[in-house]
Amino acid sequence: MKNLPPISHQSEAPNRGIMARMVPDIFEKPYSPTTSEPKVLEQWDESGYSNPDTCIKKGVCAPDAEAFSIVLPPPNVTGTLHTGHASMLAIEDTIIRFRRMQGKKTLWLPGTDHAGIATQSKVEKLLEKDGVRKQDLGRDEFLKRVEQFAQESHDTIVSQVKRMGASVDWTREAFTLDEARSLAVRTTFKKMHDDGLIYRGYKVINWDPKGQTVISDDEVNHEERQATLYTFRYSKDFPIPIATTRPETKVGDTGVAVNPNDPRYAEHIGKTFDVTFCGVPLSIKVVGDESADMEFGTGAVGITPAHSQTDAQMAERHGLPMVQVIDERAKMMVGGEELMGKKTTEAREAVVAWLQSEGLLEKEEPITHNVSVAERSGGVIEPLPKTQWFVAVNKTFDHNGKQTTLKEIMRESVAGGNIQILPERFDKTYFHWIDNLHDWCISRQLWYGHRIPVWYRGEETHVGITAPEGDGWEQDPDTLDTWFSSALWTFSTLGWPQQTDDLATYHPTSVLETGYDIIFFWVARMILMSGYLLDEVPFKTVYLHGLVRDEKGRKMSKSLGNIVDPLDLIDKHGTDALRMALIVGIGPGADNNLSENKIKAYSKFANKLWNITRFTLGATEGVDLTKKPTLHADDEARVVEIDALAKEITNDMELYRFYLAGEKLYHYAWHTFADIIIEGCKEHLTETADPERSASTRWMLAYLLTNTLKLLHPFMPFVTEAIWGHLPYKNADMLMVAPWPAPNK
Question: pTM (2 decimals)?
Answer without folding.
Answer: 0.91
